[in-house]
Structures are given as C-alpha cells and as structure tokens.
Write a structure and sequence with these properties.
Radius of gyration: 26 Å
Largest sheet: 9 strands, mixed
CATH topology of the largest domain: 2-enoyl-CoA Hydratase, Chain A, domain 1
Distance between the termini: 13 Å
Helix content: 25-40%
Strand content: 15-25%
Number of domains: 3
Shape: globular
CATH superfamily of the largest domain: 2-enoyl-CoA Hydratase, Chain A, domain 1
Length: 578
C-alpha cells in the first residue's frame, strides 16, 4: 500500500541568511506593508465618516459592520478586489468622485463553520451604486463560488447604476447583465444563494436577489424596476419606492421575496440560520485523519526572506517550509529541472501541490562547468511542471503556483530543444485542468512565463499578488535596452559622437525604465482586476488556509482520490524515488 511520506524542509533564518540582511529586508517590507495598510483603510472608509453617519441615522449598519456581524466570531474576513478602481476619478470638474473598491465589497467569510462568498454593496459610496468595473468585480466573486460550489451571500443596498458613468457599466460582454447570467448558472448547479435586501434595490440591483434560493427584506427595504422619481417622471404618479416595492408588496403580494424582518441585525441572524441548514463541510473528511498544524517555522518570517533587490536570489524551499503544516513536504523528482520545485504538502491538514520557481543557480545540463540562472523556464523544468500539474489534476489535489519567473529561456539552444513545443504542452494542460488552481505572484511575473505558470488569463480560482509583485512583459531596464538597441554597442554601452547626444540617449533610457517600472506597480493590475488581491507575505498562509479549505468544502463536483492511489506514487517510482 502506497503511503505519502513527507519530509521536513527548511531551517532557522540564521542558518541560511545574514541576520542583518534579514532585518534589512524585514524593515523594507514593513514600510511597504504600512503603505498598503493605509490604502486598504482608505478603501474601507468608503466616502468617509459623513456617509457612515448618514447610514447610521437611517437605523442601518454599514456594509463592513454587516459583514463583521455575519461572520463566525473569532474568524477573519478575506477580501478580494480591494483595489479595483483605486485612485481613479470619475466625472468632470467639481463633480469628480472616486469609487473605492468599485462600491462593492467581495470577500470570503465563515458562517456557521462553512465558507461562503459574500457580495455586498458599499452603502457609504453613492448608496451602493454600480460603477465601472463593479459588475466585473461581482462577477469575479460569483465565478469563484461557481467553480468551488461555495454558497453566495448577497447583502444588497444598491441604488442602481451610477448613471453618469452608465456607458462604462451597462454594455459589454461582462457588463452588468452578466451578473444575472452568473445568478442563473449558480442556481442551475444548485449552489446556495441567499439574499438580504437592506434598503435600495433598484433596476439591476432589483434583479440581483430574485434568483436566490431565499430572499429576506427589512422594513426599510424595497425592490423596484424603477425608483419612485422615475415613475413620477414617466407616469406622473405620486408614490414612494417603499410603497411600490417594499415588503408589503414583495413578501405578501408579488412573492418576489420570502420573508420580512424588522432590521439589519434580524436579517443577518436569519442568514446565519439559513447557512446552518446547509450540509456540513467535507473539510474534516478530506483531512484523512490528519489534524491541522502550523508550520514549524513562523510564516511571518517570509517577510524578511525576500531581498529588496528583485535580482538577488533566495531559496524558495524556505518559503514553502513556512507555508506547509509542520514544515514537511514531499518533493517530486528533485534531480530534474532544478530551476523548478514541485511537491506535495498539507495546509490545515489538507493535501495541496506546489509548483515554484527556484531562483538559485543550477548546473547546465550540457555544459557541465556552466551555471544557469534560476527563475527562467528551461526544457526539463517545463516538462516537470506539466507532468506534476497533470498528476495533481488526475488525483484531485489543489495546485498552488508560486511565481517568481523571468520568462522562457531564449536563444539558439532554446529553439533547438523545442521550448515552444514544451511550453505549448504546459499551456494546453493549464487550459484544460479541472483541479482547483491558485496562483501567487511572489515577485516577478514576466513575459510568457507568467502565462505558462497559470497566470490570470488561464483562469486560476484566485490570483494573489504581493507588494513586491512586478507583472509585465519585461523589466524596465531590458525594455529600455531594446528601445535604444541601435544606439548601443554589444555590451549595451551608449554609442555617441558628442556629450549632448550621449545625455539625450541616457535620459531617454532612464525615462523608459522609470515608466515601465511605474507601470509594474501591483496597484495598477489590481485596480483593473488583472489580479484579485494584494496581500502581505505574512498573510499568505492565512489566505491559503481559507482557499484550500474552500476547495475541499463541497463534494461530488470533482475527483478527489484517496492518497493510496495517487498517480504521484507511480511517477515517483519511475523517477527513482522510494
């Protein structure tokens, strides 16, 4: 009978790093984290204290207060999409306004010991209106719930589209209407959807709860195709939105809602009760008798492992050792494609596969006296990733990609060894894989390497970035050299006939490098949904605990093999394992 034999990896910080270098890295990351904490707080504040007071004067809770009340005591909220629309102003002149978080909160929370995806209009931002990218952010959260069969909770307090920006919200392949497509698909495969209506629920917001399995309304809530002002203008009738679409109508006459409750807290308690009625989680079952355990080494130490300079290497096994339970890991075919680390560990007692870039120099397979840089994709490493990912898919093991990739190898040797073909094989696998995939952009996410290692276009369940992430085709310095290549010699020194010409070329290269480096700021990719969330290295283990548990919560929608019959055992024997 085959057994999964995990071995301890990692070591104390002082055994592989200069303590002063570690402290220097730690201090640098502390500054970055503080900067992002301020940005998070800015988004969470919505339109500010004045609008919080307005909500409270109506006898209502703010959106964040609702979510905090709804989650299990002692559990945490794991937001995604925090920085959507960050720093963007809409409108013109004095009417310019920002839309923090696109006016909607999407997050993972635990309710009655079951994970759920919560989608909640931010009622401190234009009364929960839909802005540009609000639909896309909602749809992204629905997609995650759809693929993992995780219950969806809608907390609706929405005054409809923010009409001055309707042209950027209403049409398009992923415009507002696609939300209702996802409502329907979730319903079609019996993913529980529970809706609470707390106030305004106009137009698109009015359609959003209807397909849910159960709909609650507070006494202040109403659902209407068009608000009272529009009806007055169109039909000249003197009415209120509450009188035409309140609980009196929709609970007792139209049957568009199921129950009425007095206030916000009562509604949230009812949602908790509905969650309690659902089947229990399969998480404990799929631990196969293993209790959750923290890593042997503190996950917060990852903050100091990453060098300040992205060109300096580090040992990714030390990172993995601070992510997996008890810091034990089964590395598959370690002697092949050493620029890649593949293996299996546990997170919160649940099996998970890892594919990670190894930054350390490795031996050249042909030129024995030469070394090759890590973080680059070569033939053996690509084959190794493809084989490992296919085994994860066959065995039903969730797969985590830890990206720090500079791209594919280039040059005559790369073409002769057929890197294009091997890369295509990997891309085909990543495009057809069915096991849940989570992608983490640790540092560099460059060129086709970003795609090949299951970047966002290859539809991972979730993609997370860090404050160090640099997502781009190539680094600024490389692009500057390419732009001015005809003005440089073979060693990339500037060719000039006089000082003025030299200074102009140098200035131009510096401007290109600065612009590209600025464009690689992770905030830019997060604000346009190219990545789902920017998290700190110290938050990586908690986020992965939640995400991996979510992949195992539901049963019957994907293959999950007993570890005794994994494909990995056969592969390990063929590669000389024990």
């Amino acid at each position: 009978m085959a057994k999964v034999l995990l071995e301890q990896i990692g070591s104390p910080i002082e055994s592989f790093m200069d303590p002063q270098e570690y402290e220097k890295n730690l201090e640098f990351m502390k500054g970055l984290n503080e900067s992002y904490t301020e940005k998070r707080d800015e988004v969470k504040a919505g339109w500010g204290e004045t609008y919080v007071e307005r909500v409270h004067k109506k006898g209502k809770m703010t959106t964040w207060e609702r979510i905090d009340f709804l989650k299990d005591p002692g559990s945490k909220i794991y937001p995604i999409g925090t920085f959507v629309n960050y720093g963007i102003e809409f409108g013109e002149g004095d009417s310019k306004r920002k839309a923090p978080g696109a006016g909607v909160v999407t997050a993972f929370i635990k309710i009655r010991d079951k994970h759920a995806v919560v989608i909640a209009n931010d009622n401190t931002v234009a009364s929960g209106s839909w802005w540009p990218l609000t639909p896309e952010k909602i749809i992204r959260a629905q997609e995650i719930a759809l693929r993992l069969r995780i219950p969806v909770i809608y907390l609706i307090d929405c005054s409809g589209l923010y009409l001055p920006e309707q042209s950027k919200t209403f049409p398009g392949a992923t415009g507002a209407g696609n939300i209702f497509t996802l409502n329907s698909r979730l319903s079609a495969i019996q993913v529980p959807q529970i809706a609470g209506v707390f106030g305004d629920c106009i137009a698109g917001g009015g359609y959003m709860p209807i397909i849910s399995d159960v709909v609650y309304m507070t006494e202040q809530a109403y659902m209407v195709i068009a608000g009272a002002a529009l009806v007055k203008g169109g039909k000249g009738q003197k009415i209120t939105s509450l009188s035409i679409g309140g609980p009196d109508i929709h609970v007792h006459l139209s049957n568009c809602a199921d129950y009425r409750v007095p206030d916000d807290k009562a509604l949230l308690l009812k949602i908790k009760d509905e969650m309690a009625k659902l089947p229990s989680s399969a998480i404990e079952y799929y631990r196969f008798g293993m209790d959750p355990a923290p890593p042997l080494f503190d996950p917060a130490e990852i903050e100091g492992i990453f060098p300040i300079d992205y060109r300096i290497t580090y040992d990714v096994r030390q990172v993995i050792a601070r992510l997996v339970d008890n810091s034990i890991f089964w590395e598959l075919f370690p002697g092949e494609g050493k620029e890649i680390v593949c293996g299996v560990g546990r997170i919160n007692g649940l099996y998970v596969g890892f594919i990670a870039n190894n930054q350390i120099l490795s031996e050249h397979p042909v030129h024995k006296d030469a070394k090759r840089p890590g973080g680059i994709l070569y033939q053996a490493g690509i084959s190794k990733m493809t084989t490992f990912a296919r085994a994860c898919d066959s065995d039903g093991i969730p797969l985590i990609w830890l990206q720090d990739v500079g791209g594919f190898d280039i040059g005559p040797e790369a073409e002769k060894t057929g890197l294009l073909g091997y890369g295509s094989n990997l891309i085909y696998n990543n495009s057809t894989i069915t096991t849940p995939v989570i992608t983490i952009l640790l540092r560099k996410a460059s060129g086709a390497g970003y795609y090949a290692m299951s970047g966002r276009p290859y539809e991972p369940i979730v993609q997370l970035s860090t404050p160090l992430t640099r997502l781009a085709v190539m680094e600024g310095r490389t692009l500057a050299i390419g732009t001015y290549r005809t003005r440089l010699d073979d060693n990339f020194n500037i060719i000039s006939t006089n000082r003025e010409e030299y200074d102009n070329i140098k200035k131009g290269m510096e401007e290109v490098e600065k612009r590209i480096t600025r464009d690689m700021d992770p905030i830019l990719s997060a604000r346009q949904l190219d990545t789902d969330e920017i998290i700190f290295f110290s938050e990586l283990r908690p986020y992965l605990e939640t995400l991996i548990e979510m992949t195992y919560q539901s049963i019957g929608y994907r293959r999950v093999k007993n570890p005794r019959i994994w494909s990995f055992h056969d592969i390990n024997i063929l590669y000389g394992g024990k």
